[in-house]
Amino acid sequence: MSKFLPAVLVVAAFSVGAAAHIQPALAGTCAAKCPPAPIQFVPGQRITYEVVNLTSSLVQMQKVVGTDPIPLNPGQVVSFTRGGGTDPNLSLLLWDATGLPLGVRLAKPNPRTLRIEVRPGGRPPGDRTIYLRDDGRVAVY
C-alpha cells in the first residue's frame, strides 16, 4: 500500500485542483434572448401573401405552378391568396432584374397573412425562393 500512496495523493491533488475550476451549469429560460419562433400556418388554411419590394430596382416574382413572372417596382406591394383546400405546396421565386442578390424577411402580421419583404443585399446568390409546404411550414432558400 505504501507504494501506491504517492500516486493516490497526486491523483487526489489533480482532482481537487480541477474541481476548483468547474463552473456549475445553470438551467433557465431564454425569456430575454429567445430566437423568434419559426413562421408556420395551419395546413390547408387560406393564406394571403403580401410581397413588398423594398429594393431600389425591379424585382421579378414567379409562382412556380405555371405562371409568368410578375414585375415588382421599387416600393410596390402585391397581394394574392392561396390555399384553403387541396392546393399543393407553394414555391415563389424572386430575382433582381439587374442580377443583384436579394435578402428576404418574413413576417406573420396576423394568423392568415405571410408578409414577404424583399430587401437588397445578402451574400450572392442571396435569398431566391420562398417555400410554403403543405404542412404549414415556411422556408427561405
List the helices and strands and how they pair.
Elements: H1 5-20, E1 47-53, E2 59-63, E3 70-72, E4 77-82, E5 90-96, E6 102-110, E7 113-120, E8 129-132, E9 138-140
Parallel strand pairs: 1-7
Antiparallel strand pairs: 1-4, 2-3, 2-5, 5-8, 6-7, 8-9
Strand/helix succession: HEEEEEEEEE
Strand arrangement across the biggest beta sheet? 3-2-5-8-9
* Helix content class: 10-25%
Query: Unreliable runs, pLDDT <50, ≥5 residues?
Result: none
Tell me the overall shape: globular
Helical run tally: 1
Fraction of residues in β-strands: 35-45%
Instruction: Name the structural class.
Output: mainly beta
Write up what this structure looks like.
The chain has 141 residues and is mainly beta. It has one helix and nine strands; from the N terminus they run αβββββββββ. The protein has one helix at 5-20; strands spanning 47-53, 59-63, 70-72, 77-82, 90-96, 102-110, 113-120, 129-132, 138-140. The strands form two sheets. Strands 3-2-5-8-9 form a five-stranded antiparallel sheet, with no helix packed on it. It is globular.
List keywords for this structure.
141 residues, mainly beta, 5-stranded antiparallel β-sheet, 4-stranded mixed β-sheet, 1 helix, 9 strands, 11% helix
Short note summarizing the structure:
The chain has one helix and nine strands, in the order H-E-E-E-E-E-E-E-E-E. By secondary structure, it is mainly β.
